[in-house]
Design a protein that fits this description.
15 helices, six-stranded mixed beta sheet, alpha/beta, eight-stranded mixed beta sheet, disordered N terminus
């Protein structure tokens, strides 16, 4: 589908179709990135991936919408405990439900009874998806995450064709050969619709014990990564089997919020950082090259490294020669007011590429990652220059992250 088909009425096409497409494009004009979450196989945890990626993006300070277009088996309302959430609006608009700082819409929110079966053929399903795109007041969003049903049927085809230049697809698989075979078809499907594949996520990849953290390969792993390589698409990462995912889903909370320090949450964080990486400036990337001068930020309280960056009186900004392991200069700076996102943005603008602290919450870590600043936690309350020198020499002893939120 070309841009011309979106901007001009095509010969032989009904005027209503053109007007509808224009209305959808107008509604979505304030949405920057549109990501479609797909899988050729059911039961691979696609909705879990969609919900938690959306939640991590929200933690990173992004404005996020989550659209569930699984008409026959909507999962999002159940996973977020929204089965009885009221949907408001006017005769021509629908207001999305707000939960976990996300804007959410699903057919499951519009059913009178949560056990109702939706018995619709293709045209009715397509009309419902058009309504979600045209009539829902999405407003200004950084990301719209679209959770599709499994397969390559009416729903994913409709939403891909209606979205105005979608960013691409995130394809979810499990390591097993049967799932991978179906996911290959999803990638071919995307190519036939000229939808870029942002990357593949391998879900249920090994088991991480929630008590000791030991990783065990209950089933085979690595199939998703191998398939991505064979198909010539990026591999975004692996998500382990984690009982906490089921428990948090039953409790109506994304696992990345309920258990932010779990291995599963860290895996989702790495995937989101790979999505955000193109936003980082080339200048910031160059500053991190080995041998270049770089700047390291240390939060300071009473002259020593502050155990939490948010409690710091000042920041020590040290310029270093990473190749020769030398500190070139040190500057003491007073931070701006500690509003969400202010410190990561401020330090990034000052040229910092690393921050070392005693503790930092996962949301703040994501905000720093968004601004291209690496985070090192678990450092002791010592003189900033001593901390940086130990870091340069690879001898910094970092303990546990003292921040639990």
């Amino acid at each position: 589908m070309t841009d011309d088909t979106k901007k001009e009425r095509q010969p032989g096409k009904p005027a209503e179709d053109f007007q509808e497409r224009q209305a959808i494009n107008s509604r979505l004009s304030r949405v920057k990135e549109k990501l479609v979450v797909l899988s050729g196989k059911g039961g691979v945890g696609k909705s879990t991936v969609a919900v938690n990626l959306a939640a991590v993006l929200t933690q990173a300070g992004k404005k996020v919408g989550l659209l569930d277009i699984d008409i026959h088996g909507p999962s999002i309302p159940k996973m977020l405990h929204l089965e009885n959430a009221p949907v408001t609006g006017t005769e021509t608009t629908l207001a999305p439900v707000i939960a976990h700082k996300m804007k959410i819409m699903s057919i499951g929110l519009l059913l009178q009874d949560r056990d109702d079966a939706v018995i619709w053929r293709g045209p009715m399903k397509s009309n419902a998806i058009k309504q979600f795109l045209r009539d829902v007041e999405w407003g200004e969003l950084d990301y719209l995450i679209v959770d599709c049903p499994p397969g390559t049927g009416d729903e994913p085809m409709t939403v891909i064709q209606l979205l105005d230049r979608p960013t691409g697809a995130i394809v979810v698989t499990t390591p097993q050969a049967l799932a991978i075979q179906d996911v290959r078809r999803s990638i071919v499907f995307c190519r036939q619709l000229q939808l870029p594949v942002v990357g593949v996520v391998e879900n249920m990849s090994g088991f991480v014990c929630p008590k000791c953290g030991e990783h065990t390969d209950i089933f085979q792993t690595g199939g998703g990564e191998s398939m991505a390589r064979d198909m010539g698409v990026p591999f975004l990462g692996s998500i382990p089997i984690d009982p906490q995912v089921t428990v948090s889903g039953d409790d109506g909370q994304p696992v990345v919020q309920a258990h932010p320090h779990s291995e599963t949450s860290k895996a989702f964080g790495r995937i989101v950082r790979s999505l955000l990486e193109p936003e980082l400036s080339e200048e910031k990337s160059l500053e991190k090259r080995e041998g270049d001068a770089m700047k390291i930020a240390i939060p300071v309280a009473q002259g020593m490294l502050a155990m939490h960056f948010g409690h710091s009186e000042q920041f020590a900004l040290l310029e270093v020669d990473s190749e020769n392991k030398k500190i070139l200069s040190k500057e003491m700076l007073t931070p701006p007011s500690h509003e969400p996102g202010a410190l990561p943005r401020w330090l990034s603008e000052l040229g910092a590429s690393v921050i070392i602290t005693g503790g930092m919450g996962i949301r703040a870590q994501n905000l720093f990652a968004q601004n291209g600043v690496d985070v090192v936690v678990g450092a002791a309350a010592e003189d900033p220059e001593k901390v940086v020198q130990a870091y340069l020499e690879g001898e910094l002893k970092a303990g546990a992250n003292i921040c639990d939120h």
